[in-house]
## 1
Amino acid sequence: MSVITKDAAMAPRTNRRMGARSLLRRVRRAGLGFAALAIAAYSFFPIYWMLISSLRDPQYLFRAPDLLPGPFSLESYETLLQLTDYPTQFMNSVIVASAVVAITLVCSVMIAYAVTRFRVPGKTLIIATMLYAYMFPPMLLAIPLYGIFVWLGIAGSLMSLVIAHCTLTLPLGVWLLWGFFKAMPFELEEAAMVDGCTRLGSFLRVVLPLSLPGIITVAVFSFLLSWTDYTYALVMISSDAQKTLPVGLASMIGSFDMRWGEIMAGATLIALPLFLLFTLLSRFFIQGLSAGAMKG
Amino acid sequence: MRSRYDWVIWGFLLAGLAITTVFVLVPVLHAIGLSLHSAQSFIAKPVWVGFDNYARILSEPTFWRAALNGLIYAGGSIVLQVVLGIAFALVLNNAFPGQKLVRGLAVLPYLLPTVVVALTFQWMMDGSFGLLTALAREMGFGIVPWFERPGTAMATTIALSVWLWTPFVTVCFLAGLQSVPQALYDAAKVDGAGAFSRFLHVTLPQLRPVLTVVVLLRAIWMFNKFDIIWLMTKGGPLGATEHLPVLAYKRAFSLFDVGGGAAVATLSFLMLCTVVAIYFRLFPLEEKK
Amino acid sequence: MTKPGKTNVSRRKVLAGAAGLGALSMFPAPAVHAQVHELRFLNAEPAIDSVRALRVAAAQYERERRVKIVVDTVPVGDAYTRMTSAIRGGKPYDIGTLIFVAHVLSLANEGQLTPITQLVNKHKWGKRILFPINGEQYWYMYDYNLCWLFYRKDLYDQLRLEVPKTWAQLLENSRKTMSTSGTQRFGITTPVGSNDATNWMSFGYLWAEGVSLFDDKWNLTFDTPEARKKTAAYLDFFAELYKTMPPGSTQISFGNVLAQFSADQAAHAPYAGRLIEFLEQRAPQLADKYGMMPYPDQGGRMAAVNHGYDGWVIGKTPLAEEAVRFMEWFSDAHYINFLHSAPLHFQPPRLDIYDDPRWRAHPLIEKHAAAVKQMQGFLEDPNIIIRSIDTEGPAPDLRPAKIFESWVLPEMLQNKVLKNMSSEECVAQAVAGMRKAIG
């Protein structure tokens, strides 16, 4: 709880000390307010600029920049939807990200649970090995990975991209959930099992609900990683019909004229679902991230 | 009975590990294998050259410059991210009107795809029409060479990375802060410790586990960050922001030297492995009780 | 080949495992050895009108010949990566777009291209636009993208300036057209960063002066005392010119140059016909206020334009013959339609097009007939040199491509204007860089 409550609960002081205290408190509160405002502005300002640029009449984008939202126009969005395959790319990104979240959740829960509950030899080695996926520059991993998909016959499909993304999300998922499960005393499950549950039952009824924040965190992270990935999507997907959003947006830069309005519109639309997702799940996300990270 | 479902869980564990092995280890091994060959493109037949690529790469000053740039970039980014992240977390840990909103805003940058951030900041720092360029001029800083000088290009790239990824640190710390028992603070206050001293002697030690994990993850990610540098400067100007992933990419995809690119990537990988191994020695994952 | 049965079984086992983890529906349709022929076309012109022209052609061809054509579009910089990935993935493109002769060479050397010599020889082509490899033609060029200098004719009239024929005159004009009152206008904009734009836009002055990279025996002619002296003089001139440029030159690329010229931020700009199209679209008030000139040299004798080009290749695929037939069919009316998607930027490489009334009938070509005539003149004028980094040398080769991709020349400029090194030093480093790149 806040420090202020604690202060108020303290024993009464003399008037002089109280006066000095309240002045200090006021200065502190003002400083706090200023700091909070600074943080808010610093974090939000580029996003604000992206938003108003996308909603500005494109002609005005090439004049002296204006801090206030200028002449309102949806032209950038209209052009974007006409010029590019945005809806298709959006659907592809949704499909891939959803699949990645589903697979990652199931697998990381299983693996993390097994590693903490069963006697698995070389536990630390397994966890450390999962980090290797992060340690190699992704661009050079992408080509051999693509080669494996060719051998499997699924090269160029969204499925291959899903698998590629899972190699990025699984290590983090296992790591975070490992921390969660480790912190959960086995006695809870034992109690449930004594009550007649099977291991699976106690898992479903005791472990999962308690680790909900962690699970949601893993879900959010996996979604983020998949939704925003550029390098793997560039290499794995070859046809236009299966492009995902970041690749689609980046290829707009490749065109020879400066379509800043459309680029900002595209950027806003990519970020929008993430903002929505986050607002809905923020509570769990912060909780889960912390607990997992702390115990890991 | 127990044993039936145990089998399911074991099955998943092994399947998961097997799949990770196939899709992670095999590409890594393949890339390392490529570094021992010479090939002009990814469809040419690789020719065995043993360690020639390594000898060549290690003797080039560009490699060492790229390694140094990588260290500067990663080091600078991590230090700033951690310092700012902790500072923000400390501020956001207090109650004030609109706390929830500010917390939400503080996390927003992390949610943005790198591509979006790169484009938005490129737009804001455009030499002719950029908002930040115009603002800097109005405020009397004259023409700020965002990317014109090697030094400023690195600084600007680090600043962008900090803006983008500090929320990760903030969130981890915020949550960690909320689990520090108030009793410890009270005890310290009774002992006469000021705010800063309380931070040093209560907060930091309590959050050591979080700090350990966060710094490690950020170190690995920042050293290998490719997107943001490639999109902003492509390693320029004059190689000032070219680090090992960018160098590997250029060699393999532009300079018709796939073996060389793979060698750079493998060397980068080995460097990271060494650092991580040392890190685990100093800050072991599991505290043996 | 391995025993087919064995491979299938192991594959199936792996797939069965994978099936538990993901929606089966995401598997691609099994590769049918098509009853309906389907050609895959990789296009690298993402402009909506160009894509539309290709799609219309594809639809028409399907109607007439019952062959489907699937068009994928990538930004031009990604074309080669995409083609090699596709080859490696076992699904090569039947028709692809390539913009570097080294890429064509590397694919041809791997046996991944189908020769189209007969198709190419049906027409007469312009100067330096054909790139035969071992006597065969693999590349069907669809445009020139020569780079020259644009200037603001209205400012020249206003300030009574003459079209510059020497570096000194250009520098003078650039200084005079700068204005600090009101919205600031700079003299000239030129990219300086290590990117394609700089390689294409910033070295025309060198070619005009007679500097080259390789001779017919692949000797590095850049490394002769005369070439070094000329290049050093160019760097001195460029350093002065840099003072008349807007800030941020290391970051700008093609699009920025267009934006700056059309927003009255720069009075001179290097580009090709696309700038005129851009003006018509975004800054119509300037659409009749531009002038064009080739890059001048130091002494006023010769001039140059920087070479640029794009072309299509036919992959080594089972449907290659069908693809060649499509190309043949396409190269008439639909090709003109495609050219019309960027009527001034896609400068025809085939000489018959210039006289074709169907091509001439486009409103922009009619309106800017003078510009078109000047562009045609670049091909015919013996005093105008057409040269580029990547086309140096007597035949297609990887060496000029390596020099191109190692950004040796842009870095030479950066050393001069960002680090203020002496011109001789910059040239020496460039020579060293070139020697290292070509190995």
## 2
Amino acid sequence: MHGLQRQIVEVLPRLRRLARVLARDAADADDLVQATVERALVHQGQWRPGTRLDSWMFRIMKNAWIDESRARNRRGRVFAPEAQGDVIGLDGAAAMQARLQAGEVARAMARLPDEQRLAVALVLVEGLSYKEAAEVLEVPAGTLTSRLVRGRMALLAELEGDAA
Amino acid sequence: MTGDERLIAFVDGELAPEEAARFEAEMAADPGLAARVARHRALADRLSAIYAPVLEEPIPPQLLSAASAANDAAPRAARRPPPWAALAASLLVGVVAGRLAWPSSAPLAEEGGRLTATGHLARALSTGLAAQPGVVKVGLTFRTADGRYCRTFASTPDRLAGLACRDDGHWTARTVTAWAPRPQSVYRQAGSDTPPEVLASVDSLMAGEPLDAAAERAARDKGWK
């Protein structure tokens, strides 16, 4: 077992979480994680030990997802997320409200343009700093912040019915 | 920086300390601004909370397998895990930081909801002795409180280690974990390579002391009955 592979295994939960924000459903999300891991192993020579593996793999996932999104758009498939009850594994009637709200947020996220969804996912879900997120997305800091602002305004408008 | 950019940078903790202090002073003087900050904070909390449970989910075995693909070769194309993989995953204990590679001849098979050793693993468990070399090493042999024999194993070709106990003529896996032989450990003490989760399983099942070499051989020769 090489050190890199052990570290990839440690990053898997976060890769799955990011993928769950990006992909249409849980099964697609794990396919995206698998594609990301496979690309990472093919290109493992490009990773510099001592730098952050999570950021590097998020960037690979971003590229894999964009490639897949383009292919999907070419095929004319409409991005239509499922009811998203499976975003989180909640049980019981008491969790119904949380489930509805989770579905609501997930649907609002799914309606964001890809570039805004990525920015919001990296900063608000994965907790990356602006600098780290801009590096993952390979965009200047100003581009990241403007995507973050537009994405969050759209989410608030959708979820509150009112732009902040 | 626009006003909105400044606001979300404040919410995200991205303003320099003196900038943040100035922003807080403005908030104190402007309830409308404070309300907008509160809404953005609520959105941020909600987003992180709804996706957080994903971190607690078990990792699907095919992802562990993909992450542990051959060291230098290009990874295999995606393929379905064998039917016993899910069960094996359910037996995995703790954080799996090892390699799970599914060889063409599976060492384990599901049988009535149990994971049973097959092929070379079953042979090694039935006939191997602790001192013998081989690609499947047997470690400790002991008896449970109800008299079953159990043996720890570590399989180099399967990259698995675990604990299996004798049940109705089969070896049923009680614990399986990803494992890789440590290179250049000529002076390694026997048993020191056993993963902690396997040792924990041994501790929970063993009644008395492990079998010594003579008792191990005798039990084997009697067919583990």
